[in-house]
Design goal:
This protein has five helices and six strands. By secondary structure, it is an alpha/beta fold. The chain has a six-stranded mixed sheet with strand order 1-6-5-4-3-2, with helices on both faces. Strand 3 and strand 4 form a beta hairpin. The longest helix has 18 residues. It is globular, with a radius of gyration of 18 Å.
Length: 172
């Protein structure tokens, strides 16, 4: 039976120092609540509408993302092989010293979403990162994320790509 001393010490350290962020996993959540947007749950939106609403409420979105995130821009162009692609939203996390690329998806996580983000992360790693930056991370922010799809789509990737679910309100 534990007397609680190890946990007490961990809780006291956390209270003193706050959350220690050392890896992307320490910052990225499995789900985000976008209640501040005021969108009723059954409302169907286009990705561009969701992006616009997030821009309008950027301060709230930054708070929901967590510590260290700074907004860089939307629709950041990535040109590969004379073809232009666009990353929906780009942030920089000053604690992780890494770019955070966000791709907004209205529907479910799909296999091809991870391939697209893997390409964007590789581009940022090669063409945008400064020598003292850590490798970029990315979040596919989707309305639905099945665990088994996420496991197969994200498994074995060298890059830090996460799939997180969003909801428009906290279920009561």
């Amino acid at each position: 039976m534990s007397d609680g001393k190890p946990n007490k010490q961990k809780v006291l350290a956390l209270a003193k120092e706050g959350q220690i962020i050392e890896r992307p996993e320490d910052v990225i959540r499995n789900s985000y609540v976008l209640e501040f947007l005021g969108i009723p749950e059954p409302k169907a939106l286009k990705e561009t509408d969701l992006e616009r609403k997030l821009l309008e409420r950027m301060e709230d979105f930054l708070l929901e993302l967590g510590r260290g995130f700074m907004f860089v821009g939307t629709q950041q162009r990535v040109t590969v092989g004379n073809v232009h692609h666009h990353v929906d939203m780009v942030f920089y996390n000053k604690i992780l010293k890494a770019y955070a690329l966000i791709d907004l998806k209205i529907g479910r996580l799909q296999f091809d979403h991870t391939g697209q983000m893997n390409g964007y992360v590789n581009y940022y790693k090669t063409e945008v990162n400064e020598p003292d930056d850590n490798p970029p991370i990315s979040i596919i922010l989707c309305a639905d994320r099945e665990e088994v799809v996420a496991e197969f789509a994200l498994g074995g990737l060298e890059n830090q790509i996460f799939a997180s679910k969003y909801t428009y309100y906290i279920p009561r």
